[in-house]
Design goal:
Elements: E1 2-7, H1 26-48, E2 53-58, E3 75-78, H2 83-91, E4 98-101
Parallel strand pairs: 1-2, 1-4, 2-3
Length: 110
């Protein structure tokens, strides 16, 4: 099973302030560590569910937020700019079994 995952800092556990999504600073570094931890949890679930290939798109800002070190062998990271536009063709690939956002929006219904 092949999966496509788009991950963005907005919606990641612990990302709660504008400073968390900046390019520089301690808050930004912590946010990126949280992003990787969330991705690792998602990938663990993908593996448990039988995924044999996962394409991950770093969809935040310029797409340079995830350290690829230590990613499982069945994962391919798409990073760099322009990330959001480049994720659309990949996500629409007929070879994908599923497409999932790893950081869904956290809007509270009214």
């Amino acid at each position: 099973m092949k999966l496509f995952i788009a991950i963005d800092l907005e919606g990641i556990c612990g990302v709660v302030a504008e400073a968390d999504t900046a390019r520089e600073g301690a808050a930004a570094q912590r946010a990126r560590a949280h992003m990787r931890a969330d991705l690792d949890a998602v990938l663990q679930g993908c593996a448990a569910g039988g995924a044999d290939e996962v394409v991950v798109c770093d969809a935040h800002d310029d797409g340079r937020n995830l350290d690829p070190s230590g990613l499982p062998d069945f994962v391919r990271l798409v990073s760099g700019s322009p990330s959001p536009g480049s994720s659309v063709p990949l996500s629409n690939s007929e070879s994908n079994t599923a497409v999932a956002p790893a950081s869904p929006s956290r809007h509270t219904p009214k």
